[in-house]
TrEMBL record:
Residues 1-248 form the ABC transporter domain. SUPFAM superfamilies: P-loop containing nucleoside triphosphate hydrolases. One of its GO terms (cellular component) is plasma membrane. It comes from Phyllobacterium phragmitis. This is Peptide ABC transporter ATP-binding protein. Coiled coil: none annotated. Keywords: ATP-binding, Nucleotide-binding, Transport. Gene3D superfamilies: P-loop containing nucleotide triphosphate hydrolases (3.40.50.300). Belongs to the ABC transporter superfamily. It holds the Pfam family ABC_tran.
Length: 313
């Protein structure tokens, strides 16, 4: 799919009149039922846009989103709404996505009640079940979001998503705002829920360790394009694309003494005017003349392993 999506300040930190950014450029993504697909890349690479298009929060200008083989925008209104309900998004900052004036019972219970998944009589039980699943004490259903810790608030967001009985969760930096120890708890909750509820995930993160922990398959994005895709073990043991290799080298060590925060050489270009040819060429240590002029297409380089680099020719 391609997405010419109007986004101003958020994407590139400047405001232009009607900036039109090609945030996604010929991105094709298939997620199998029960699979966890990780999307990794620096900020501005289009991974959030991709998540929002899949979740139906943004419309791609070209291409389409298929749900169980059916094109979402061609479904009659009601079944499209039902299909959309099956794909829920978990955001980075639970605080800003939870209404501070609503009690947890209402936050979790409003949508399933509205959609007839439970009744007013059974609502308390229904909410309790979602809270338990998400690792929250159901006796706290009468409290407000600010009475919970950051990790617990993210659990409320998860319980709210689960309450509409989704098949797929799109997690956009869903653990990025949390302490490392809490991150691990939430990631393990996602994995447990996958087992219990047969959930499918699109897991978007700038953090390679997080993606490695949770994903079956990983797509690496750079400036709106997928540059590499492989099963998680293959990607981390045999990275092919110079950008992926740079990301892996730059990965902060778990040992704080060895931790390095140096960025990959050069700045990520503006998505408003991405470099010609291979978008990565201004930063690539292996760049050749050809890379400046010729687009590098994503193609198969091994079983289930795709990369978009001219070096593979
Ligand atoms: Fe580097 Fe060229 Fe490969 Fe792009 S196509 S990653 S510039 S070698
Ligand atoms: Mg983002």
């Amino acid at each position: 799919m391609s997405g010419v999506v109007e986004r101003g300040a958020e994407l590139m930190g400047l405001k232009a009149p009607n900036p039109v950014v090609r945030a996604l450029d010929d991105v094709s993504l298939t997620v199998a039922e029960g699979e966890v697909v990780g999307i990794v890349g620096e900020s501005g690479c289009g991974k959030s846009t991709l998540g929002r298009v899949v979740a139906g929060l943004l419309q791609a200008s070209e291409g389409s989103v298929l749900f169980r083989g059916k094109q979402l925008d061609e479904m009659p209104g009601k079944s499209a709404d039902e299909a959309r309900l099956k794909v829920q998004m978990i955001f980075q900052d639970p605080s800003s996505s939870l209404n501070p004036r609503q009690r947890v019972r209402e936050i979790i219970g409003a949508a399933p009640l509205h959609h007839g998944m439970t009744t007013a009589r059974e609502l308390d039980d229904y909410v309790s079940q979602q809270m338990q699943r998400s690792g929250l004490d159901p006796s706290m259903a009468g409290r407000f979001p600010h009475q919970f810790s950051g990790g617990q608030r993210q659990r409320i967001g998860i319980a709210r998503a689960l309450a509409v009985q989704p098949d797929m969760l799109i997690c956009d930096e869903s653990v990025a705002a949390l302490d490392v120890s809490i991150q691990a708890q939430i990631l393990n909750l996602f994995l447990d829920l996958r087992e219990q509820l047969d959930l499918t995930y699109l897991f978007i993160s700038h953090d390679l360790s997080v993606v490695e922990h949770i994903s079956d398959r990983v797509m690496v994005m750079y400036l709106g394009r997928v540059v590499e895709e492989a099963a998680v073990g293959e990607l981390f043991s045999h990275p092919n694309h110079p950008y992926t290799r740079a990301l892996l080298q730059e990965r902060p060590s778990l040992d704080p003494v060895q931790r390095r925060f140096s960025a990959i050489e050069g700045e990520i270009a503006s998505p408003l005017s991405p470099p010609s040819g291979c978008h990565f060429h201004p930063r690539c240590p292996m760049a050749m003349e050809r890379c400046r002029v010729e687009r590098s297409e994503l193609r198969l380089i091994g079983p289930g392993h795709k990369s978009a680099c001219h070096l593979n020719d």
